[in-house]
Amino acid sequence: MRRTKLTILALICAISLFPGIAAAQSADPLPSWNDTAAKKTIKAFVERVAKQGSPDFVPVAERIAVFDNDGTLWSEQPMYFQAFFVFDRIKALAPQHPEWKDKEPFASVLNGDINSALAGGEHALLEMAMATHAGTTTEEFEKIVKDWIATAKHPKTGRLYTEMVYQPMLELLAYLRANGFKTFIVSGGGIEFMRPWMEKVYGIPPEQVVGSSIKTKFEMRDGKPVLVRLPELDFVDDGAGKPVGIQMHIGRRPIAAFGNSDGDLQMLQWTATGPGARFCLYVHHTDAEREWAYDRKSGIGRLDKGLDDAKAKGWTVVDMRNDWKIIYPFQKK
Amino acid sequence: MRRTKLTILALICAISLFPGIAAAQSADPLPSWNDTAAKKTIKAFVERVAKQGSPDFVPVAERIAVFDNDGTLWSEQPMYFQAFFVFDRIKALAPQHPEWKDKEPFASVLNGDINSALAGGEHALLEMAMATHAGTTTEEFEKIVKDWIATAKHPKTGRLYTEMVYQPMLELLAYLRANGFKTFIVSGGGIEFMRPWMEKVYGIPPEQVVGSSIKTKFEMRDGKPVLVRLPELDFVDDGAGKPVGIQMHIGRRPIAAFGNSDGDLQMLQWTATGPGARFCLYVHHTDAEREWAYDRKSGIGRLDKGLDDAKAKGWTVVDMRNDWKIIYPFQKK
User: Helix (H, G, I), strand (E, B), or coil: what is residue A213?
Assistant: First the structure.
């Protein structure tokens, strides 16, 4: 009897001590990836840096991986999802702004004419972003984003925006973390637009989200401190801004970087040129049927110079149509 | 024989599975703290938030603790240690700047007359900081800091600056982390002056360091990307800037905050007024013999309004002379 108990205890202990062994050897950590070159190079890189005794071994603290968001972790067509948020906010705030009825670009948004609203280019977008992202406290804004993301639907798929994340990339995030990586978002999107939902959707906590920002100001209101969001641009985390954002928030160079557009190119260059093993990957949107197909000539998420650089430097380019079994989690069987 | 093997295996397993139990129950996690009220309130708070089933239980992801550095984790007298770095840099850079011989505040520094150098107040300090902290790449600056911190000695103690950290606070950092806290630095010091040594000295990685900063710019040099440090102020992480820095870098409100001066007051207020259990602590410099004694009238690390607020709000105030058995690690027996 005693022996039996000890045997059982020993077995339980063996399982408890080495829970990952059986799973790691049998289960595929990237089940939504076809067995093409992309998947193989990812796995080969992770094994190189994470395996004790490997000549390219990297200590856990230095296993930093950075991910763009729009077009890399979730879709970005027919326009950045945050733009839909801006338009919905303009509609919601319109009663407090009767002057918007006669003022562009707001008037066009209220008339449902998005093309005209965007005709003013960057300047018009920035004006709308400021009008809709500032003026609240940080806590009020967080609640606004949470409410919107929980209910707003994509105009084409009718899905929640958080359902339009890429299942293969979710698996990649989890696979990297299981191998000691710390995963960060480095996106041109608004930092406070992303933080409220990314922990739940990507497993990435607020302190590992880097993005564009407006300034905030500490203030006492009725004896309670608040942070007020100001209509003043603070930082644009895009293009050459991405390595700057990485240095500002992370303070060390990543060893792996994942993007999908020319706006990610400097982030990939910065990552690629550090010492030791490095991994850079571009998601190439090639799947007009299951998602969208676009690259060199797209207004949103243009991938032109980056595609040339990737070829020249041997970076991994994911062909969504051929490399991914499914695109979105809801397509899982 | 088999039974014996199993017994041993079971014992090894039991120890492996529950390694902390014996240690946690017997060893004191804060051995350099006297058994005064300060120590008791710290331990009571940690147990309240970390114990499963406690009405004040806080999930691990939300156990954020923020620490000021100068005067909270290491000494700051007779002036901020980073100022010594600035003066040493001016001396090192003087050969490349012959004009400094006749230009204040640089001339006074080169003549060893620090008081005159500082007579120009904030403006003079900022000018010296820009002249010595900008103009390099981020990697060059990191090396400069590492070399300096490894060799420069404090004028009074003759010790390395990293030896002048507070042993009780090192224990507190480790104790919090052992209880699931993520520990962050939120300091008025330069972020890139702190990152190169804090991981080794405090166990805090670069991505958990928030500080003041100058702007950087991405640039290609001989086909290699670099980040160039510009002589342009980006962010001052002091006073009302601290909650702003916390939001920018961490994106959620800490549940525990540790400071020593009025420059930390808004950080403590911001921390104190969130929902649920909260902990705020001021280190009060009361030990003229083993360290320095200063508070309401000090030019460096003034603690005046904060001392009143701490009393009014019931925050913990550490009396260094009475609450700490030793100050520095080299005083350990």
Answer: strand
Phi, psi of A113 (to 5 degrees): -105, 80
Read off φ and ψ for residue A233, nearest 5 degrees: -65, 135
pLDDT of B97-144, one tens digit each?
999 999 999 999 999 999 999 888 888 888 999 999 999 999 999 999
CB-CB under 8 Å, A247 with B216: yes
The tally of CA atoms less than 13 A away on the side-chain side of residue A26 is 5
Write b or e for each residue in A57-90: b if 16 or more Cβ atoms lie within 10 A of its Cβ, otherwise e. Answer: ebeeebbbbbbbbbbbbbbbbebbbbbbbbbbbb
Question: Residue with structure tokens 């080169």?
Answer: B110
Cβ contact, residue pair A216, B248, below 8 Å = yes
CB atoms within 10 A of CB B203: 13
Task: Give the model confidence (pLDDT) of A47-77 as tens digits.
Answer: 999 999 999 999 999 999 999 999 999 999 9
Tell me which amino acid residue B250 is: I
Residue A26, pLDDT score: 59
Cα separation, A138 vs A135, whole angstroms: 9
User: pTM of the entire structure?
Assistant: 0.92
B105: preceding bond cis by omega (within 30 degrees): yes
Burial class (CB in 10 A: 0-12, 13-18, 19+), B317: buried
Structure-token match 């600035």, residue found:
B86
B8: pLDDT strictly greater than 60? no
| One-letter-per-residue 3-state SS of B274-310 | CCCCCEEEEEEEECCCCCCEECCCCCCCCCCHHHHHH
Taking the C-alpha atoms of residue A240 and residue A242, their distance in angstroms, rounded to an integer, is: 5
Query: Cβ contact (<8 Å) for A10 and B14?
Result: no
Partners of residue A294 on adjacent β-strands: A285
Helices B265-272 and B305-313: crossing angle in degrees, nearest 10, is 20
- Could you tell me which chain B residue has the CA closest to the CA of A182? B207
A:B CB pairs within 8 Å: 117
Measured between CB atoms, does A217 come within 8 Å of chain B? yes
Closest Cβ–Cβ partner in A199, A250, A270 for B207: A250
Q: At what angle do helices A19-26 and A2-17 cross, to 10 degrees?
A: 60
